[in-house]
Amino acid sequence: MFSEFRAFIARGNVIDLAVGIIIGAAFTAIVNSIVADLINPIIGLIIGGIDFTNLYLVLSGTVPDGASLQAARDAGAAVFAYGAFLMACLNFLIIAWVVFMIVKAVNRAREAVTKPKAEAPAAPPGPTETQLLTEIRDLLKAR
Q1: Among 42, 73, 47, CA closest to 60
Q2: pTM over 0.90
Q3: What pLDDT shows up at residue 96?
Q4: What residue segments make up the domains of the chain, in order of their start?
């Protein structure tokens, strides 16, 4: 059983997957930094520093006016935290856009490095079905 497990681990797909996960984790840190440190401050300036995270509706319980979402949760109130959801959606869109731009840049760089191969000349078109049937008919007549 151990040798079978060792053979499974030694297969290229498992090692490639492990490398992909490690690189993905490092890439996630880069993308999160781009979003949190570069893009979100710019968006904050554009929308006037509004943070939607603390927008919520109290479904049950009592919460002091102007309390933050965390304070409302700590008070034991059931809250409908639509602001946190909106911020999560906004962050997702920003992250998706950043990843798209990075992948697009990598693809352009890859295309610039690889030279397009010269296309082989196209083969001349073969005979049509009618031409083949005519040729077969003529061969049969010549017999």
Answers
A1: 73
A2: no
A3: 84
A4: 1-48, 51-116
